[in-house]
Q: What sequence folds into this?
């Protein structure tokens, strides 16, 4: 009898795929069939769409209707197809012009009264639409700010189905809401590095970590400022580039964590999961299709594991591959999803379970002490470039020299990062921490005299081969911070010191 | 039955009969010949049995005075469709009709309080 189609987007992790929704109205008793592997939430769209159509003042076509979602073999789920389903049906019934639905992606969940509700993952969906050359998208007005982060696509925001229908019928009419001027996000309140007393070594380690993108372990008695330093780390990192900001925002969109007014995330995220977090909470998981975990939410930012020795060994081991690969691949019933996970790890731990302010007062048995930090496995610690032992603070801060503020240190970090980026242009890496060992050993080989301390430590079995590569990487960062174009032997020695074996 | 319920039942029966009259007129106007009306047997009843000369057309007439409880045609449930099929088989046996093609139609009659009556013909509905 009649046929129409509309477009929606299926999300697979942070990747979107365009889905064509065909509606056919044929002879037969009234009823609605939906085919194309819908999950429960999508099957229930049948009832939501019917109620929304009726409550928007439209007649429900009293015919046999078939809705097909193609590609038919791709499992589809969620409520974001509701708007496209309703529009396809009404177009097939001749209530709205079918040709208006060409080149238009419709996203949104319908409430029973016809209101359009917000859904997760609008940003990746709009990105997917742009990728296949679709130029126009309708989203719930609550997601308008998020959708308009993608340029090159005309985005419209609607509050209810009625609004969308009258816009489809009369494009010249009142129309739908258009995005306003982008509002800059309020500057995040990052605490200042000047608040931290003493701790010269640890401050220096945080600076090196920020400059090179290295992972960092801080050990020391409680109250020495481990957590304070870790929280101040994001303030030292450069703002995200446009591409990075979109990557980070896409992950947070899928996790449903965006601020509706200013959705774009421009500062590196800081994620601090509690030490009782499960493996699924850390790396991502969930039934059906896996959802992003803490390591992906901290993409391009800092993942801070406070009291790292209290984390379950399984949770920590699960972090190893994501940290190495910069992404997580999670296989669940409905397929394998990839989430980015290029985050910087900051670990903090007490030296022992009793953790007195002064280490001499420790009452732990030697075996208990050994077991405590021994929970941090060798393979994980081997991936941590910087390890610092923090000493108790002995001064109330009346010292003559005011501690350096975030702004001062950040300036140096940005310069070092710029130097590193200039060196690695054309290679796909931007920080020293990302560069593979073989490249440092071959293409950027240092003179034997410079690498002598590493060679000696390797020979004596003090570092592993991977540890040697990491020391080399640190040496490059130390040189970048000092403004040298390649490391000298003293930079290598400093780098060796930053991998203090006493600090676990 | 309560007097009011009785009255409501009476009204709805009357509406159904009126719808069936309209449907029969409509079928005749499309050139079909009505063979039976309200034919009953042990299994139930069919509203209209007609023919276009080649095949048997079995019609279920569903009349409603408004769409508040849904479109008239939505009142034809799978159970009702199955019953109509059984009754049709009984009809074919009763009249000793041999093999013949059968089509099941629904005639949806809408008789609103205010406004014109509409008859919608769903051919081959089930």
A:
């Amino acid at each position: 009898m009649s046929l129409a189609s509309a477009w929606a987007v299926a999300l697979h992790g942070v990747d979107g795929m365009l889905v064509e929704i065909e509606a056919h109205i044929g002879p037969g008793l009234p009823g609605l069939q939906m085919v194309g592997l819908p999950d429960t939430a999508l099957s229930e769209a049948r009832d939501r769409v019917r109620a929304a159509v009726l409550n928007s003042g439209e007649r429900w076509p009293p015919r046999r209707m078939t809705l097909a979602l193609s590609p038919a073999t791709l499992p589809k789920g969620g409520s974001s197809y509701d708007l496209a389903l309703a529009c396809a049906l009404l177009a097939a019934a001749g209530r709205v012009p079918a040709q208006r639905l060409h080149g238009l992606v419709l996203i949104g969940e319908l409430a029973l009264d016809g209101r359009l509700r917000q859904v997760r993952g609008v940003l990746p969906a709009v990105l997917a639409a742009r990728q296949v050359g679709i130029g126009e998208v309708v989203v719930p007005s609550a997601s308008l700010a998020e959708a308009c982060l993608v340029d090159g696509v005309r985005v419209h925001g609607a509050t209810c189905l009625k609004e969308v229908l009258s816009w489809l019928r009369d494009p010249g009419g009142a129309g739908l809401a258009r995005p306003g001027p982008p509002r800059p996000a309020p500057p995040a309140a990052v605490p200042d590095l000047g608040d931290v007393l003493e701790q010269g070594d640890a401050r220096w380690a945080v600076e090196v970590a920020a400059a090179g993108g290295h992972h960092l372990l801080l050990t020391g008695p409680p109250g020495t400022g481990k957590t304070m330093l870790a929280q101040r780390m994001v303030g030292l990192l450069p703002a995200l580039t446009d591409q990075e900001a979109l990557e980070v925002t896409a992950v947070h969109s899928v996790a449903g964590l965006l601020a509706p007014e200013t959705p774009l995330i421009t500062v590196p995220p800081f994620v601090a999961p509690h030490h009782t977090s499960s493996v699924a909470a850390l790396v991502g998981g969930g039934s059906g299709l896996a959802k992003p975990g803490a390591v992906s939410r901290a993409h391009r930012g800092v993942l801070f594991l406070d009291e790292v020795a209290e984390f379950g060994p399984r949770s920590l081991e699960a972090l190893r591959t994501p940290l190495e690969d910069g992404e997580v691949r999670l296989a669940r019933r409905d397929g394998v999803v990839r989430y980015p996970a290029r985050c910087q790890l900051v670990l903090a731990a007490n030296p022992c379970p009793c953790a007195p302010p002064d280490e001499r007062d420790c009452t732990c048995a030697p075996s208990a002490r050994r077991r405590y930090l021994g929970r941090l496995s060798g393979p994980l610690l081997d991936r941590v470039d910087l390890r610092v032992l923090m000493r108790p603070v002995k001064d109330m801060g009346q010292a003559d020299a005011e501690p350096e503020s975030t702004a001062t240190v950040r300036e140096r970090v940005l310069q070092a990062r710029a130097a590193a980026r200039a060196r690695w242009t054309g290679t796909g890496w931007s920080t020293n921490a990302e560069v593979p060992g073989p490249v440092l050993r071959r293409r950027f080989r240092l003179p034997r005299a410079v690498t002598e301390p590493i060679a000696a430590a390797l020979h004596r079995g003090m570092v592993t081969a991977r540890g040697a590569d990491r020391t080399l990487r640190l040496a490059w960062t130390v040189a970048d911070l000092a403004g040298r174009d390649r490391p000298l032997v003293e930079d290598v020695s400093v780098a060796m010191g930053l991998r203090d074996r006493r600090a676990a | 039955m309560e007097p009011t319920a009785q009255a409501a039942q009476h009204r709805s029966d009357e509406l159904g009969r009126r719808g069936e009259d309209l449907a029969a007129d409509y079928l005749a106007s499309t050139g079909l010949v009505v063979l039976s009306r309200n034919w009953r047997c042990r299994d139930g009843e069919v509203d209209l049995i007609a023919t276009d000369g080649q095949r048997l057309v079995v019609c279920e007439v569903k009349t409603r005075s408004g769409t508040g409880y849904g479109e008239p045609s939505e009142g034809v449930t799978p159970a009702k469709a199955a019953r109509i099929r059984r009754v049709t088989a009984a009809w074919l046996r009763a009249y000793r009709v041999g093999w013949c093609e059968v089509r099941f139609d629904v005639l949806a009659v809408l008789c609103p309080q205010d406004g014109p009556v509409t008859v919608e013909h769903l051919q081959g509905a089930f």
